[in-house]
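Researcher: Quick test of sequence recovery. Tokens follow.
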């Protein structure tokens, strides 16, 4: 929990009572590579804080094709936001791509904490706003950037994990085929 407390205290000093209450509702988990944190059609409404490692959220189409929506690395949050803010079951899966340490929060428990400590809710709201902005930036990139530009942006944001994340998942995240990803990598290597 020290990592999460340190992360939050960059924005807001926490009282000992706030720290204690956060610890009470948190669940620290050590995940193996390939372990699923949230599966599709789940009733769970969770938020996951990544202490170490790399997670991804993905949607699986009716034909079984996986579409990667988000990667999350140290100090990032990940969730199925559609489920989080509606009464629907989850449509996304969250998977650990490497050995990872995470802190899980059930949304109903977080809501109680936010009511008790409104300043903590403000910090979380700012974080959520940043995630929404990042998702919009990603969508605009998918719509407007070339495959090479998408991959270059990916390298800028996830350079360390580029070797950990399988090629087909990187391609899925970028909205290109694995073959296009290979072509782009060769093009970059030659330049």
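Model:
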């Amino acid at each position: 929990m020290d990592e999460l407390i340190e992360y939050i205290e960059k924005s807001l000093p926490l009282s000992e009572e706030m720290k204690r209450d956060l610890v009470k509702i948190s669940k620290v988990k050590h995940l193996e590579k390939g372990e699923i944190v949230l599966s599709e059609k789940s009733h769970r409404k969770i938020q996951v804080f990544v202490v170490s490692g790399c997670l991804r959220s993905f949607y699986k189409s009716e034909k079984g094709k996986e579409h990667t929506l988000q990667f999350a690395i140290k100090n990032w949050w990940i969730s199925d936001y559609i489920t989080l803010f509606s009464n629907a079951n989850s449509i996304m899966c969250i998977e650990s791509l490497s050995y990872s340490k995470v802190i899980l929060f059930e949304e109903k428990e977080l809501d109680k904490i936010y009511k008790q400590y409104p300043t903590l809710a403000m910090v979380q709201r700012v974080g959520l706003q940043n995630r929404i902005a990042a998702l919009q930036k990603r969508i605009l990139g998918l719509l407007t950037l070339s495959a090479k530009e998408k991959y270059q942006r990916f390298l800028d944001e996830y350079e360390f994990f580029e070797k950990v994340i399988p090629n087909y998942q990187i391609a899925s995240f970028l909205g290109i085929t694995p073959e296009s990803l290979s072509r782009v990598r060769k093009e970059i290597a030659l330049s």
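Residues 51 and 74 are 5 Å apart (CA to CA).
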